[in-house]
Amino acid sequence: MSTITQRNEDVRPMVDAACKYGYNYLGIPNKDKQFCLLAAADVHGDKVRMASAIQYMNEVPSIDAGIILGDMAPSNFRNPHEWYYDCVRQAIKPWYTVIGNHDCGNSDKGEISAAQDQIFDRWIKPTLPVIGDISIKKPYYAVRHDRYKVELIVLDCHENPDMKDENGDFLVHRGANCFSQAQIDWLTAELAAVPQGWTVAAALHTLSDEIELDRESCWNSPRTGGPVSDDNCYKGMIPSIFDAWIHGKRIERTFKSPSRSGKYDACMPAISVSADYTERGEGIFACYLCGHDHRDEAGRCADFPEQHYFAFNTAAADNWQNGGCDFARAHGTKAEDCLTAVTIDTQERKVKLVRIGANFTMDMERREFVVAGY
Ligand SMILES: [Fe+2]
Questions:
Q1: What does pTM read for this prediction?
Q2: C-alpha 22 – ligand 1 centre gap (Å)
Q3: Element (H, E) at 154
Q4: Do strands 350-357 and 369-373 pair parallel, antiparallel, or not at all (unpaired)?
Q5: Could you say which of 3.60.21.10, 1.20.1050.10, 3.40.47.10, 3.40.640.10 is the CATH number of the domain covering 4-373?
Q6: What is the pLDDT of residues 109-140, one digit of tens each?
Q7: How far apart are CA 96 and CA 154, in angstroms?
Q8: How far is the CA of 348 from the centre of ligand 1 (A)?
Q9: Cα distance between residue 51 and residue 3, in whole Å
Q10: Domain regions of the chain by residue span
Q11: Number of neighbours of residue 215 by Cβ within 10 angstroms
Q12: What is the 75 CA–ligand 1 centroid distance (Å)?
């Protein structure tokens, strides 16, 4: 049985080229190497593919770190989870965890869903040794890669309030898109503290904003739909904050959750965003990295077209998880893998994606790499 690195040996030159890894024409080590993050999405309990992701990150020198973009849990919070720690413990480079809807419970039922502290304790706390030093003990955090002047901001877009009804069930579905005032205050302050000249990328399970897919991009296909979350909670809030930061502007706005029922209205109060980036000046934003849709998507926020959005097909190789996606996945071939090397090229201001594993869509389109300028 071949390892993931052996199966995908053919894309190694592409991964290396994306971050200019290696030596220049004089044989001198290349100083131009750019930050390269291995992205996996929605592994949903597939521990074989999860272990493969960690192995690939460990074994390929041009990759600096890795991330899972949410939905580690097969279905809900009660599912076994130790397998995830077993995989992450093998990481010899930083590995970042993003919370997805299934990791919270994807239900309002108290017995299969979790409160916010439980979510941190289950999914983030045991991985702290491979995240590095984060001062905030929350499922949202920021990490800096000094060598590349890149900051990665991990958001928790399922930060549902902990309020329960008389039956012990949560008032708000653990999987609805939601942020707390505290998380947004943290985000605006974190952005203010990003050093000048650094590049920021944001990772979150899903962005509840309309996305204009780039229909010319090989990363999309006729089967790819743009993500608009059903609940659309606090629509426009995250891109508005980044827009103010990108342009060195001030933002004073209130964002409301959609009014669906009395219980939601009571639990999800309006969030006020207050930040002033005029003194800091313009910020450099690379892109959002997302999961959730089990499809590859490349596009931009409809209302903020400067802001790139990329989502990745599920890393899980079973047929059920792959039901809605573009790829045929075959065990024992390289198509059983589906990971993406994301390079942030801060010199050329480009995001370069390279697919590791499943390269052919069911429409027989080849999906190997895509480059987008920011
Ligand atoms: Fe999801």
A1: 0.96
A2: 36
A3: strand 150-154
A4: antiparallel
A5: 3.60.21.10
A6: 999 999 999 999 999 999 999 998 788 889 99
A7: 8
A8: 32
A9: 10
A10: 4-373
A11: 11
A12: 10
